[in-house]
Amino acid sequence: MSEAANDGAVLIRYVDRDGNPHDIAAREGATLMAVATENLIAGIGGDCGGCCACGTCRIRVDATIAAIVQAPDATEQELLGFLGDDDPALRLGCQLVVTSAFDGATVAVAEAE
Length: 113
Prior knowledge:
This protein is an alpha+beta fold. It is built from 4 helices and 5 strands. It has a single domain, classed as Beta-grasp domain (Ubiquitin-like (UB roll), Roll).
């Protein structure tokens, strides 16, 4: 996957709600939600436009991402708690900004509760 990163892109594998993988060259600084919605990943809505208010961008991040991102802030924790999500791998895609360290990571659409 790192070949695309040599061109300045960060290659991330998204797994849509049907289990189909999509390898996407993301730009650093974009949120995981924005990358998903721009590439029409089924199951990621981003209805609130990335304001951490709706929960339609819930994703499951792999160990690569989980190990390097900060814990959810109070607003994200509150929304995840409201949705019944206490798994630390479940995050809101609108709150995670793509960095080069995400290269080769996998993000999956969270299961609907």
